[in-house]
Amino acid sequence: MTKISAIILTKNSEKLIPDCLTSVSWTDEIVVIDENSSDKTREIAGKAGGKVFTFSGNFSEKRNFGAKKASGDWLLYVDVDERVTPLLRKEIRSRLAKREAPSSAYHQSPYVAYAIPRRNFVFGKELKYCGFWPDYVKRLFKKDKFRGWTGELHEEPNFEVDSEVVTGGKGKIGHLERPLTHLKHNNLSEMVAKTNEWSEIEARLMYEAKHPPMNLFRFSTAMFREFWLRMIKQKAFLDGTVGIIYAVYQVYSRFISYAKLWEMQIKTKK
């Protein structure tokens, strides 16, 4: 029978980890990669039967470390603020079981991984616009075809396809129908804290990639593009007040990343 390992990354996640662990308790193994939590995250995970390991690094490095510690035939990556619903659990079990049956149409499936849609919740409200549906994420991988994550911030998985290592899967990714539940943000303070942390990384990556110098024109066009994308093209206003707040916040988030890039650039000139 196919063995599934759930892999969860944590850092001071004592409020989120209990429900996340419950949602993957049906898997054959739970691997928790913790980044030196100072709260009860590791204790909670251990008591729930998780195999807890301490590791520091960027997102790709932590995800890759989790894969090394997992023993399953399939790897299911679940963020600590995500929940595997009963319907998704049933679909995963059913899809993988069909792959094992010689008489099944799925038996000769070329897929090395599956992407899963997400229902995103901000301030307790599900956002269906602003680019949030179906929001497919690649999370269920056949371990013997998986060749690791790359990317420091917006990481992508790599797979062996026809004897070549291919980023993202390129046509060998199946799509599940049942979604993950993603509790994206609970309050503005949480959003600002995450933006401050991630914008540092994003700005540094743009700086290292020799991004053109930021000026009034580039700031203006970048902010306009982000606003147009979120509010007009992706129709964030149809999600009501929360949708509008989130769309405007994304403009602010983009601004902070570019402002930090500008700061790095002017320091270099001195």
TrEMBL record:
Gene3D superfamilies with a match to the protein in the record: Spore Coat Polysaccharide Biosynthesis Protein SpsA, Chain A (3.90.550.10)
Keywords, alphabetical: Transferase
InterPro entries referenced in this protein's UniProt entry, alphabetically: Glyco_trans_2-like, Nucleotide-diphossugar_trans
An MF annotation (GO) of this entry: transferase activity
Keyword Transferase: yes
Ranges annotated as spanning the membrane: none
Domain Glycosyltransferase 2-like per the UniProt entry, residue ranges: 5-87
Name the record gives this protein: Glycosyl transferase family 2
